[in-house]
TrEMBL record:
The lineage of its organism: Bacteria, Pseudomonadati, Bacteroidota, Flavobacteriia, Flavobacteriales. InterPro entries: AmpC-like, Beta-lactam-related, Beta-lactam/transpept-like. It comes from the Bacteria. Residues 1-21 form the signal peptide. This is CubicO group peptidase, beta-lactamase class C family. It holds the Pfam family Beta-lactamase. PANTHER family: D-ALANYL-D-ALANINE CARBOXYPEPTIDASE, D-ALANYL-D-ALANINE-CARBOXYPEPTIDASE/ENDOPEPTIDASE AMPH. Keywords: Signal. The keyword Signal applies. It comes from Chryseobacterium arachidis.
Length: 550
């Protein structure tokens, strides 16, 4: 049985005593600010036969209807005792809201409760989502969705879904639409999901007292900048301050060619530090490269042999490989440039322990279920690996979907995008790999989860919108912006429009109508204004105006 407590800290509240029904019955919503994370709570107060009762919802934690235990309302002050959580709340009622403090185990959090129309709420983030009761019907819809993508030559890959520890759905799709034969292929490059395996093996060493989270990097690699300050824990949770060796100095994709360990170490040293350890959190491939080398040093075994001992043999995995094994059954990656084009991916020997594993979505689900059922590490290690207030934990990260919190890891190479996630409340895990992707891997999983949780979503639009090369040529040129540091080159290729940022790979732009183009993989939209010789780029809520060089 999976542990729900990893995702839910329960507040049990019971309400008794007389209060003014006309003032406080109904729903009240507030937000706890827990180290930068906003946690909405909803109190639902009702009255029956002069007896008051209440429940509490915690949407982001996926729970509602939590019983509430004790209340007083005197002189316009609301007081709650939350014994099971070791917490109290006191709030003054003024101007149709309660303003006060929520205190839990010595920590004080301001909490303002305001009236909330729960019945007519349209904010999906405040809904407690539930899996549809007709799971087979949902799986049929997923099958139809994948067939739609396949028919429109939009995606190729494989997905696996586990419920209650068992695989309930698996499908490989779209591979026959790709230019080259994929016959005999069975595995995918999973990119940074590899880091979760590395972290678990590091924690196995910690459990054996061969390593400690507080050990300094200088114990193993004293020449790395700030090695005397950086701990194993900070390498695991991306708080070391180290840079990212995967990005080359002169060639962004320098790791597509064979590179030596000495060259990689020199690159890590050359990049120096971005900030002091523990001052902030920034994703670092360099940290996990060093962790892999530390693992091999302590165990005196290769990364491959460590994987065999921790995962492959105990879980009886097949089709699970590292770069040193040179797997020949890996699905080839493609990018869409108005037609599918093969991608030159990493030389995966350069990213061992960082992003080199090739396997199947089914194996990923087996691993993440084994992790949460306690088959891989102790409960203490499991808790330490898990993310708390930060997005990244020590090998796992938070992946939210409306009010549902999934935990796992994503992984991307230059041509394949993968995901491995688990939700403990529903005992549900989803893993996939996409080696050819037009709609964007983030959009893909949102659509899959929308089907499973019966929320609205729009099917991708593949209406054939052709624009002639002559028409596209009026957008061509080099663009610069006072609002963004990089320049963007717009050009025509394969009878389609492309964009390329300074020092970055090119990407195709799909016509969206009225001088607008988009690139769904990056959530990017560009609107051209030919008469003004300008374009506007929109991404992640930001808007940037670019001028065309004359």
């Amino acid at each position: 049985m999976k542990t729900k407590s990893l995702f839910i800290f329960l507040f049990l509240i019971i309400i008794s005593q007389q209060i003014f029904a006309q003032q406080i019955t109904g729903s009240w919503k507030g937000e706890l600010d827990i180290q930068g994370t906003k946690l909405p709570v909803i109190m639902n107060i009702s009255q029956e036969k002069n007896v008051y009762s209440a429940t509490m919802d915690s949407p982001l934690q996926g729970v509602e209807g939590i019983p509430v235990d004790k209340i007083t309302f005197t002189n316009n002050e609301l007081a709650l005792e939350i014994t099971s959580a070791g917490a109290t709340y006191k709030g003054k009622f003024e101007k149709e809201k309660f303003s006060g403090n929520f205190i839990q185990r010595g920590n004080t959090f301001p909490l303002v409760l305001e009236r909330f129309d729960k019945k007519n709420n349209k904010d999906k983030s405040l809904e407690v989502l539930k899996l549809t009761s007709d799971i087979n019907g949902s799986l049929k819809k997923i099958d139809d969705f994948l067939s739609y993508l396949e028919k429109n030559n939009a995606e190729a890959g494989e997905i696996s879904i586990f419920k209650d520890g068992k695989e309930i759905y698996k499908r490989n799709f779209g591979e026959n639409s790709l230019p080259d034969s994929q016959k005999g292929k069975e595995t995918f490059q999973i990119g940074s999901i590899t880091k979760s395996m590395t972290a678990i093996m590091i924690f196995k060493l910690i459990e054996k007292k061969q390593l400690d989270l507080n050990d300094k990097l200088s114990k193993f690699y004293p020449k790395i900048p700030n090695a005397g300050k950086i701990t194993i824990s900070q390498l695991l949770n991306h708080k070391s301050g180290l840079g990212d060796y995967v990005t080359g100095k002169d060639d962004m994709k320098w790791l597509t060619a064979k590179t030596s360990e000495e060259q990689i170490m020199n690159r890590i040293i050359e990049q120096g530090t971005l900030f002091e350890p523990d001052m902030k959190q920034q994703y670092s491939n360099s940290g996990y490269y060093l962790l892999t080398k530390i693992l091999e040093k302590i165990t005196k075994k290769s990364y491959t042999d460590n994987l065999k001992e921790t995962f492959i043999d105990p879980l009886q995995l097949k089709n699970f490989y590292t770069a040193s094994q040179k797997p020949s059954n890996v699905f080839l990656p493609y990018n869409y440039a108005n037609k599918w084009e093969s991608v030159k991916d990493f030389d995966f020997n350069n990213v061992v322990g960082v992003g080199d594993i090739a396997t199947t979505p089914t194996n990923l689900n087996i691993i993440i279920n084994a992790f949460f059922s306690g088959k891989l590490v102790s409960k203490e290690s499991q808790s330490t690996i898990m993310p708390a207030e930060d997005k990244f934990g020590r090998g796992m990260s938070i992946i939210p979907f409306h009010s549902k919190i999934f935990v796992g890891h994503s992984g991307g190479t230059y041509g394949t995008n993968s995901l491995m996630v688990y939700n403990g409340e529903d005992d549900l895990s989803i893993s996939y790999s996409l080696n050819a992707d037009r709609i964007g891997s983030n959009n893909f999983v949102i659509d899959i989860l929308s089907i499973l949780y019966n929320t609205e979503f729009e099917m991708p639009d593949f209406t054939n919108k052709k624009v002639s090369s002559a028409e596209l040529q009026k957008y061509e040129g080099d663009y610069t912006s006072k609002e963004a540091p990089l320049g963007i080159k717009i050009f025509v290729k394969n009878d389609g429009l492309f964009a390329q940022g300074t020092g970055q790979p090119e990407f195709p732009l799909e016509f969206a109508g009225d001088h607008q183009f988009k690139f769904d993989n990056a959530g990017l939209k560009i609107t051209f204004y030919p008469e003004k010789q300008q374009m506007q780029l929109e991404q992640n809520g930001g808007k940037f105006l670019f001028d065309k060089k004359k």
